[in-house]
Prior knowledge:
753 residues; alpha/beta; Beta-Lactamase; 5-stranded antiparallel sheet; 5-stranded mixed sheet; 54% helix; elongated
Amino acid sequence: xxxxxxxxxxxxxxxxxxxxxxxxxxPFGIAALSWGVLLLLAWNRQTNENHPHxxxxxxxxxxxxxxxxxxxxxxxxxxxxxxxxxxxxxxxxPLDHAIFDIAVILVAAAFLRxxxxxxxISSHYLKVGVATVLICFLAxxxxxxxxxxxxxxxxxxxxxxxxxxxINASLLLGYPIYVLLIKTKGLLRNTICLALLFIFLNQFLKxxxxxxxxxxxxxxxxxxxxxxxLAIPLFGFVxxxxxxxxxKTAEDALQRSEFLYRSLVENINLGVTLMDVDHNIIMANxxxxxxxxxxxxxxxxKKCFIEFGRNDKPCQECxxxxxxxxxxxxxxxSEGVWANGExxxxxxxxFPVIGPENEATGFIEVIxxxxxxxxxxxxLQRSEKLESISMLAGGIAHDFNNLLTGILANIxxxxxxxxxxSKKEQQLANAEKAAERAQELTHQLLTFSKRKETLEKExxxxxxxxxxxAEFSLRGSNVKCIYHFQEDIWPVKASSGQIEQVIxxxxxxxxxxxxxxxxxxxxxxxxxxxxxxxxxxxRGNYLRIKITDQGGGIPEEYISKIYDPYFSTKGGxxxxxxxxxxxxxxxxxxxxxxxxxxxxxxxxxxxxxxDSAHAxxxxxxxxxxxxxxxxxxxxxDDEEVVRDSVAAGLKHFGYQVEIARDGNEALxxxxxxxxxxxxxxxxxxxxxxxxGMGGKETLNKILSIDPGVKAIVSSGxxxxxxxxxxxxYGFVGVALKPYKLKKLHxxxxxxxx
Length: 753
């Protein structure tokens, strides 16, 4: 039995360094090879990928490999007697212990850093471990050197020096095992703890061997060295296994990232295309291919300038080409026409794709269709421009209407005093017509300043409005009008007069575009605008009116200007017609567009909110001649010509008239009338008195005196909501300047009744 055991240990010792000493270099070679493989793996991984937490492993594997190479060198020096054995015996034992212990501490600290989330423990462990090993080395090296010269036959293991190194190493190796057991878990933890335990036993088993005087060294040494050699592949298993896990995790993350990327690219409403340096399409998302009514697979591998630009060579100002040349992102606005004839405007952004050697390998294009957004911006800019003009137009019209009121009133007075049928009567009639034409001009100006809250809207038949307007505009023309009305077409809630003005302006333009005759086709139908519609309209029911002519069309360069005030291509035009149309439709919460093909004609499309809940009354009351006036009227106006002429005209209709220049004077007159018990039948108050109290403020004070007062508000400026919501402010009637005296008489009679 003893022989069997000895034989077994002899065989084992061939791979573990023999029964002591450094005569056999086989275990050092095996250990060096093992540590060298791990070092190469770690070095390659760190070179190709940045893993900061693995840098300590490089140091640990390097130091462990260095220790084995050192042992091989020492064994060779001893075997070939290059250095005397006595000299080696002085240097070797303390240095061997120090190098081995530091190497093991580095490996243990590296795996602590590798497995623990925080580097603090491994950092402190490394500092303390290296410091204690150096202290042991310094404490033993000089003492052992002196001792061995005096006692050449002594062994290092027979002195306190070996005990110091073994106990220190055992404690240092026990600590990381303890930390890993309480702070981590799992297969990797257990494997590292087992490897550290083997190295711990390699150190610790020497202590009982020394205690028994190294009598059993031939047994302990092969076991200790074998455990050390087994620990190295365990470290390798942990490192390689963890690499595999990290690689699998990275691959899974890459797959998820690719899935998310594809989901993002495929679901955004932006066109995304990847091209190589030769402009071949590597990848295109669905949105990009759909712009050309194709699938992504149909354009893959083809030239982008052929598929997208319809060119036989790269575009002259290709942003992708510039991006590859400069290495910087590029932007460009591209305009053109789709295959269906619709114009488009695209925002193109190109980004270079940079390869590993810092060279451009292609480019990515991101395309956004900004046609609708640009159209909305144009609409907003046009609205802001009209808003600015409206402020100026409203002020001019207000002052001009005051003057026209005086002119028309004086003409009416003079006309009542001259002989019927005389030449002077005809001259006055001509003057009145000229004033009325001036009045029409002020109404055009006021169209810009009239906001939707000041419009007098009524439920009206769009069919009647269109027919009446078209027939009136084409009277005496060689152009015919063809109507297509949907059955049960909805009525509109609108200002009939203003919508008639829109239809007339468009019809007149169409008539003038066909001097040799032709046809104008008008379609009117009910439509429902949804929230998904690209039109700048709120969802709801609308009437869509299309007016198409057969004229020469509108040149493309004029399309964006036709709604600008005073823009006209006709020598005799004022340039206000389509501007007025745009302003009117906008104030009705509608929308107007134009499509034109040069040489084939134009189509204006109008959207108006429908009043589908109400039927249209076709009955019109015949105007009745108002009776003769009676009673006293208080007239307040800041313009002297208006006061005098209107007062004279009202007296002609049978009224007595008191006049006031402003609110204070009107209040004083009204107070006296109340005190003398001579009430006014009605009062006519100018809404705006520059530098004084206007009609609204004046009425508020009069109502405190006489709640039953019959007040009429008058103004040449219809912008103020008071002109529409006059009853809300206490008025019973409204007179919009310029007015004829007969019209004012009718308004007063209606108020008195």
